[in-house]
Amino acid sequence: MSDRDSEARHSLAALAPSVLGHGSADALPRASGEFRLSAFHSGERSKRARRQFTGTSVLRLHDARDGEAAVAISDVGSMSLAYVRSSGHDVLVSELQRPNLLVAVTGTLSSQNRNMRIERETEPWILFGRGPRETTVRPAQDAPYQAFVLSMPPQLLGDRLTRLEARGGIIRGKASGGDDLHLARLTLALATQLSLSAETALEPRLAEAWTTVLVAQIGRCLDLHLLPGGQAPSDQSHDPSFAYVRRAEELIYEQPIASLREVARSVGVSERTLQTAFRKIRGATPSQVLSQARLHCARRALLDLAGPPTVSEVCSLCGIDHHGRFSRLYKDAFGEYPVTTLKARLRK
Fold first, then answer.
1. CATH for 3-233, among 2.60.120.10, 2.40.10.270, 3.30.830.10, 1.20.120.1200?
2. Cα 215 to Cα 100, 276, 304, distances in angstroms
3. Checking phi first, is residue 168 left (phi over 0); if not, alpha (psi -120 to 50) or beta?
4. Vertex 192, ends 53 and 253: CA angle to 5°?
5. Among residues 269, 114, 267, 102, which one has the least CA distance to residue 191?
6. Are the C-beta atoms of residues 36 and 72 closer than 8 Å to each other?
7. Fewer Cβ neighbours under 10 Å: the N or C end of the chain?
8. Where are the alpha helices (DSSP H) in 106-259?
9. What is the tens place of the pLDDT at every residue in 242-298?
10. 16-30, 121-135, 220-234 — which is least confidently predicted?
11. Where are the beta strands (DSSP E) in 302-345?
């Protein structure tokens, strides 16, 4: 694994929110925000409240006695986003209707359909076409296998899905690809918003905005991998809002300490134009996206073995002014307080 691949892998793990708590002998894990526990497997205990796939799925834990696998799902308009956590399992899936985008953040997997087999280690995403497949997931040395799976109606991908399935039905992004990493980060940003929400369901306006931006990015990535020469078309040239938001998000996640004025200046538009573009495409303001980026910046810095030695220095590094509010938001997003993450890192 190259240093760049390793860095990309750890970067995605740092962006992943805390979706499920840990259950006990008497209680199942609780999901956060808009996620709802849909399936749980552990020894003789199992529960299935909702199917993750439109077809059947059969799961076998590697450790039948002490192993555990859990799935929590949230709806996003016509799409759904599932969080999967497992100590290791094999699963046979028959998904005949909807393609699935998988973003794994810890652990590895191997998967095969009737045409091809893949091994995932550092790839930021894998897109599965329709049809049956067998998958084996394995935990990391110090963490369970964790992944987010975005399920979508086939019409959202149109002819691109036809091309994908004609090429074998499975395609994966590259850890060195900027567009591929951006797609994985967008998926995790959606997961974070859902996990922090106090609502029971995403507003239709926000669901439509997320669907628009994710489908546009999936299309761009598929064009890069499927079209001759790997050339993606320009960002929705009929509506410059896509390009504004895309460039602004690249700047925000590269340097979250930047002010909105600096971001707008770099994009080449006014702050008001940038506000309008974000509300249209993302269903959120640039300030909300910047706040989320600062949260993720802090998460990466707190996990970095060479990072700052105090929470205050981490806040200064990431442009965070209100330490108390940051601590609460961090706990909501990642399941522990910043100082807990820091102490665990300093003990290593």
1. 2.60.120.10
2. 12, 20, 32
3. left
4. 120
5. 102
6. yes
7. C
8. 159-166, 178-196, 204-226, 241-254
9. 788 878 877 887 777 778 899 999 999 999 999 998 887 666 788 887 887 788 788
10. 220-234
11. none
Query: What does pTM read for this prediction?
Result: 0.73
Look at residue 172 and give its three-state secondary structure.
strand
Spatial distance between the Cα atoms of 123 and 6, rounded to a whole number of angstroms: 10
**Spatial separation of the C-alpha atoms in residues 323 and 320, rounded to whole Å:** 7
State the pairing for strand pair 170-172/69-76: unpaired
Other C-beta atoms closer than 10 Å to the C-beta of 237 total 9
- Residue type at position 267: V
Can you tell me the distance from the alpha carbon of 144 to that of 16, in angstroms, rounded to the nearest whole number?
A: 13
CB 224 within 8 A of CB 231: yes
Q: By C-alpha distance, which of 112, 165, 157, 160 is closest to 136?
A: 112
Q: Which residue has the higher pLDDT, 227 or 66?
A: 66
For the chain, how long is the longest CA-to-CA vector? 59
